[in-house]
């Protein structure tokens, strides 16, 4: 068991066996023996491994083990294998802490993900609008902007993991399953509108997979769903009017900050709904997003990033209900026990 832990943490840290051995003061061959459970590190070496891999020593003895199934990366073709390994290691660690917490709770307050409501049949692109609308209606979202998409998905039983792995803009998201629980992974380094579009896109995969016509590209269908889910048709037409000859960049910027959909996403949304023609959409995209290089970074203030708070909230709730001890909470939150205690009384930097 410790061998698998060492291997996983090393991959997450992006270290070779040689590099880890140098940090710990053992040979690469000895690291290999640790990972294959052919040798057991001493207590002193275990402490050095924990420091080198930026984990607590409890990590090596954590009982819960999770496996990602049905993994689907939205990655660029140039994504190095090393980055993929780091992301997977981070995802497994976070997912494992979630499962540990859930297993300790007699009746975990977050229900498993299920979507049993009837969904409209999709024959063509316009049917995706009705599909997205039905999801909003079932979840009682109305047509207003969704203030926090991560929180919404987590309360529906979808595990959202925000990875801090530096990926140099070479990673476009990931979806997988742990048992029957859907998992969506986004980057902590993206602007909020990109996080939200990826979350909605992956939700589209979960809900529409196997329900699309054979001649419809699923990636494009999920892009259409994401736009419709974040910025409903009725609101887009009410805000922009229909038809329009053109659109002002400032309109797209303001809508971005109201609905959490990028300026480019709002532009394509207008095209999809027939507010502007496809030719005008292409002209505006080339003029601004290519000509002014807005593809690399849209102008003005970025849309605020989203964060996952539910896990932390549930850990503190579990302490309060005496389901877990302070030491277990500190382990799950990956913080020193003294910092956890300070956080409980809202003292100092732990706040």
What does this entry look like structurally?
The protein is 52% helix and 8% strand. It has 351 residues and is α+β, with helices and mostly antiparallel strands. Helix 11 crosses helix 12 and helix 14 (310-320) runs antiparallel to helix 15. The radius of gyration is 23 Å and the shape is globular.
Strands ordered across the widest β-sheet: 1-3-4-2
Kindly state the number of beta strands. Answer: 4
The number of helical segments is: 16
- Arithmetic mean of pLDDT: 91
Alpha-carbon distance between the termini?
35 Å
Question: Hey, roughly how much beta strand do the residues contain?
Answer: 5-15%
Helix-and-strand structural type: alpha+beta
- Helices and strands, in N-to-C order? HHHHEHHHEEEHHHHHHHHH
